[in-house]
Structure formats: C-alpha cells, structure tokens
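Task card 7
Instruction: Convert sequence to structure tokens.
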Amino acid sequence: MLQTFTVNWTAMAEGTAHDYENLDALYRDHTANLLVPHLLATFKMLEGPTLGYQIDRERHSRQSATRALRNGESDEFVVAALLHDIGDVLAPENHSEVAAAILAPYVSDETTWVIRHHGLFQGYYYFHYLGGDRDARDRYRESPHYDRCADFCAAYDQNCFDPDYDDLPLDEFVPLVNQVFAEPKRHWN
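Output:
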C-alpha cells in the first residue's frame, strides 16, 4: 500500500477513530511486507566470528532448525529453532527473552516458553564449569513446558556446533518463516 494518508496532529491524544483505522492499515501493510525480510537480515547478522566454536551462530541456528525439521517438528517449532538465538545480535545477556518476544505473537505459549528459557536450560551443559549451578533450570521443574525445553536443548541446541553436519541453507526455511509470521495468533489488545 502506498502511503496516502498522514495525520494532521502531533500528539496521539488528538487522533480520531478514522485516523487510527488508517494508521493501522498502513502499519499492517508495512509489517506484512517487511517483517520477514527484517528478521532474515537480523538473522544474517549471526554470521561471522565463531567465538571459539567450530561454526558461527548463523550456522548453529540453521543446524538447530534442520534437526527440528528432520525430526518432524511443527513448522512453528522449526522456525523457533531457526530464530532461537536471533537475540544475540542486540541483547547477548538476555537473548532468549528477546527471541521469545519476537516469536510470541506468532507461536504457541509452549514454544514461546521454550525459547524464552532455553538460555538457562542450555546452562545445564556448562554452568558448572564456570562456577555456576548446572541445575539452575530446576527452579522451573513444575512448569508443564520444562521437559520440552530440556529436550529442545538436548536435541536442537547443545549438539548443533558440528562443522560436518549437512544443515540446510537459509533459503530452505524462508517459506516456513513466511508462513509462521503471516498472521499473529495473539494481539496486544
């Protein structure tokens, strides 16, 4: 949609229903056309330094998604596996929460929970080597999503650093990303 509408006010409190209906249409069109390209551009920013691993974070994420796809996971879970570390680009200290916030309107509560907590659950494999508690994830033992998150880390995260794994190229996942992000399942209102 070409932008053919501009409000005549400078404070949102002055807007009318007509204004907000038009603004909403412009916003939805903009989002429909640019959300996935922006996500994929951000994802590509994971390319680069390996930070001591044998592969970079972009390839790690593709391996995660490839394994999920090959294991017959749902489309939303495959996309979540692909994007689980996308928050590293802007928020390395809380990357899991950022990735979950991006996914939340488009995926189930379970998938959102898994991605939100995967950083802590992944710590099971290394926290104890750094003086931390590898069982820190157990504070969530009562969650109905605990096992799913532990399984995600075991099957699609901790083991996805293999330079010899035949992971799929990003282009293979683009149709799934478009499908999952086509329409929010939940809205803020």
